Amino acid sequence: MAATEHQYWNERVIQKNNTGTYTISVPVDMIRNLRWKQGQRVVVENKGKTIIIKDAPRR
Question: On the CB side of 39, how many CA atoms lie within 13 Å of its CA?
Answer without folding.
Answer: 0
